[in-house]
Amino acid sequence: MLKNALWLFAVATIILLFFLPSFSIMQDHRQKNLEYERRIAELQRRNDELKEEKQRLIEDPVYLERVARERMGLVRDGEKIYKMEK
Q1: Cα–Cα dist 38/86, whole Å
Q2: Does some domain include residue 34?
Q3: What is the distance between the alpha carbons of residues 81 and 71, in angstroms, rounded to a whole number?
Q4: 31-63 burial, b for 16+ CB within 10 Å, e for fewer?
Q5: Which of 19, 23, 42, 52 lies 20 to 30 Å (CA to CA) from residue 66?
Q6: What's the rounded Cα separation, in Å, for the pair 73 and 81?
Q7: Domain range for residue 65?
């Protein structure tokens, strides 16, 4: 009986030593997959925002003008820009 218990313990230990590294690697891969899924969701959200902005730039001339003035510093002919420095 004791011999069978020792044999079973030895086999269980060998199996554990064989599968433990694979299990930890699998856990690492699961964590990376979760991080990739989060990043994909974030990039999809950003992509949707950019598509919406593109559509606004195409369809809304007032928004287009505001973006051109604020982000690109464009002005209409004859306009003068005064910058106030502190």
Answers
A1: 43
A2: yes
A3: 15
A4: eeeeeeeeeeeeeeeeeeeeeeeeeeeeeeeee
A5: 42
A6: 10
A7: 25-73
Amino acid letter, 24: S
How long is the chain? 86
- Which pair of structure tokens corresponds to residue 79? 């306009």
The number of folded domains in the chain is 1
Q: What DSSP string runs through 4-27?
A: HHHHHHHHHHHHHHHHHHHHHHHH
User: What are the tokens at 76?
Assistant: 């209409």
pTM, two decimals, is 0.60
Given a contact cutoff of 8 angstroms between Cβ atoms, the answer to whether 62 and 68 are in contact is: no
For residue 12, is it within any domain? no
Tens of pLDDT, residues 31-72: 999 999 999 999 999 999 999 999 999 999 999 999 998 888
